[in-house]
Amino acid sequence: MSDKPDQFLTRETLLSRAKNQDDATAWEDFVNYYKDFIFIVIRHMNIPYNDCEDLIQETLLKIWKNLQKFDVDNDRAKFRTWLSTVVRNTVLNYIDKKNRNYKKQERVREEQEVRPELFNQSKDGQLDEFIEKEWQVYVTNLAMKKITPLFSPQAIEAFQRSLDGESTESIAEKLNIKPNSVYKLKNRVKGRLILEIKALKRELEP
């Protein structure tokens, strides 16, 4: 394991900082964290890849303009619901523009193969549900990416193999180490990963 200093700093929630439109650094951090996640959501709605970048920029612009209206203190844990509304409306506007260009709504919906059920403001909240589940995966993957440089390749491989369900004995044999070493390595990575996930959630979630 690396001897690099701990990176977990107590910081004001990123959303709180990003609400200040004069804080360019906070907004840059927000974009760095959320841009890829917004892309995942838009692609889930079957929007063509070539149109995603423009939609991401439009979504981020709307967030930047309206984030001050979002009450972090009173709307705790509701940010991703608000985000899903912003994304949904941005994509709907995109479709409407396509409709006006082609003057045939059905033609556009068929050509783009969008998922109309995701635009339905139904009680099921399919898009909200997807965003919530995907966010958990996204944060976990982001945390894993951040901690990987802190460990040896052997430790990361031991942890990844254990996640895939491989037995300790099998991992030890393939990595040419003792089973007890496998146990220690994977638990060190797991412990650091849990800490990093908590740190990211403290910073990224309202």
Automatic annotation (TrEMBL):
A Pfam family recorded for this sequence: Sigma70_r2
GO molecular function, one term: DNA binding
Keyword Cell membrane appears in the UniProt entry: no
Keyword Lipid metabolism listed: no
Gene3D superfamilies per record: 1.10.1740.10
Residue stretches making up the HTH luxR-type domain: 165-192
Domain of life of the organism encoding this protein: Bacteria
Listed GO biological process terms: DNA-templated transcription initiation
Alphabetical keyword list: DNA-binding, Sigma factor, Transcription, Transcription regulation
Stated name of the protein: Probable RNA polymerase sigma-H factor
Species of the source: Lentisphaera araneosa HTCC2155
Source taxonomy: Bacteria, Pseudomonadati, Lentisphaerota, Lentisphaeria, Lentisphaerales
